[in-house]
Design goal:
This is Gluconate transporter. Keywords: Membrane, Transmembrane, Transmembrane helix. One of its GO terms (molecular function) is gluconate transmembrane transporter activity. It holds the Pfam family GntP_permease. About 2% of the residues have low confidence. The chain contains 19 helices and no strands. The chain is 79% helix and 0% strand. It is an all-alpha fold. It has one domain. 55% of the residues are buried.
């Protein structure tokens, strides 16, 4: 059997297991790795060895980062820090521009906090603003979603882009820089759809229920200060970026470079961010809550690490079997713009199985050989997969139901607002990818 056919059959197996049988992505990815290995006529002992080595190398490279990233997000979520950042964004632009504030809030909050959780936290706030300003909830909800979903697929330490950067061998600091840039375009396109299309619909997309929201929802007396809320998020990102920048402009023997190589390492930087959270927000949470958040974070991070590592195992099989190289050669001979390949794969996975994280990780795994075989900068694949992972959010995505239920919308309204906004967001990501391709 040809390598290309083995790859195609493997992808069919992955989709059938994940969609029809609803198997966990971890099991589906490992099973796919075994199938491709067997169909490629790899020795069974080599298949097992390759899978375990790919799994282990992935865990060693990003496992600790994911743990601290999840922990940082949980502290900001439980302490009210994420809500405080949203209030600050509204104050910065004014209530009349609340849709912009929602987009900015989502952009910031979804870096440390999962997009689903971010919407749960901020939806009551958006509804309160909607009642006060008479801005339709659909406009605020989609604007908020634009920011949340953009950084969810683009900016580490969010697990999806973090894992994709690891798969592609991209420096985390570089991924943050370019991912943040692309997320701005994606957020803007989503916000523009809400502001210039949904806003003209008036009350067409009216919530099914009108909850009475009092001014207490906007009260800040129970929230931490802005510095305590945003500093633990910005500190690790600053350290990681400073590490990347210092290595680029200073001699390797420099004392500063050596110091930053330690504290600016993504593992250490995020650990410092978690410590900053405990120091600044721990008193508000209480000792018992601080410990509970740690335990819960470890539990939730485990499943993310396992799925990501399974993607690493599949990537190792693709490399060893030659399937990745064969795919890259097929792309070279197809005449298609290379950047549309990772975009299309991520888009297809997103539409079919629903998870943006799985779409980003799997697409990065499958297209990683393109970077070497075609001699292109892997950051372009990173950005294209992120754009594809925002192709369409619908009924098989947990975020879709969080959005509809928390906003008071039915399924039809969710499809007419959130789902329809996603293709525009994907176009924003593709535009950013094209712009970056002009200088890398």
């Amino acid at each position: 059997m040809s390598i290309e056919l083995a790859f195609v059959i493997g992808m069919i197996v992955l989709l059938v297991l994940a969609i029809k049988f609803r198997l966990n992505a971890f099991i589906s990815l490992l099973a796919t790795a075994v199938v491709i290995g067997l169909l490629s006529r790899m020795d069974t002992v080599d298949i097992i060895k390759t899978i375990t080595e790919g799994f282990g190398s992935t865990v060693s490279s990003i496992g600790i980062v994911i743990i601290f990233g999840v922990m940082l997000g949980k502290y900001l979520e439980d302490s009210g820090g994420a809500h405080k950042m949203a209030l600050g964004a509204v104050r910065m632009v004014g209530e009349k521009n609340s849709s912009i504030a929602m987009a900015i809030s989502g952009y910031l909050v979804s870096i440390p906090v999962f997009s689903d959780v971010g919407y749960v936290i901020l939806a009551p706030f958006a509804k309160a603003i909607s009642q006060k300003t008479k801005i339709p909830m659909a406009v605020l909800g989609v604007s908020l979603s634009a920011g949340l979903l953009a950084t969810h697929v683009y900016v580490p330490p969010t697990p999806g882009p973090l894992a994709a950067a690891g798969m592609l061998g991209i420096d985390i600091g570089r991924a943050i820089l370019y991912g943040s840039f692309a997320a701005i375009f994606m957020t803007f396109f989503g916000w523009a759809f809400a502001q210039f299309y949904l806003a003209k619909k008036g009350d067409v997309f009216k919530p099914e229920f009108e909850e009475s929201v009092t001014e207490d929802n906007l009260s800040e007396q129970d929230l931490p200060g802005m510095f305590a809320s945003i500093f633990p998020l910005l500190l690790p990102m600053f350290l990681i970026l400073l590490n990347t920048t210092s290595k680029a402009i200073l001699p390797k023997e420099s004392t500063f470079v050596k110091m930053m190589s330690f504290i600016g390492d993504s593992n250490i930087a995020l650990a410092i961010g978690v410590i900053a959270c405990v120091v600044l927000l721990g008193k508000r949470l209480g000792k018992e809550k601080v410990l509970k958040v740690m335990d819960r974070s470890l539990s939730e991070a485990g499943s993310i690490i396992f799925i990501t590592a399974a993607g690493g195992a599949l990537g190792a099989i693709l490399k060893s079997s030659g399937a990745g190289t064969a795919m890259a050669e097929a792309v070279m001979n197809s005449g298609l713009p290379f950047i549309l390949i990772p975009f299309a794969i991520a888009a297809l996975l997103k539409i079919i199985q629903g998870s943006g994280t799985v779409a980003v990780v799997t697409a990065a795994t499958l297209t990683a050989p393109l970077a070497q075989q075609l001699g292109i900068d892997p950051i372009l694949i990173f950005l294209a997969t992120g754009a594809g992972a925002r192709s369409f959010c619908h009924v098989n995505d947990s975020y879709f139901w969080v959005y509809t239920k928390m906003s008071g919308f039915d399924m039809k309204t969710g499809l007419s607002t959130l789902s329809l906004s996603n293709p525009f967001m994907a176009l924003g990501g593709l535009l950013a990818t094209y712009i970056v391709s002009l200088w890398v």
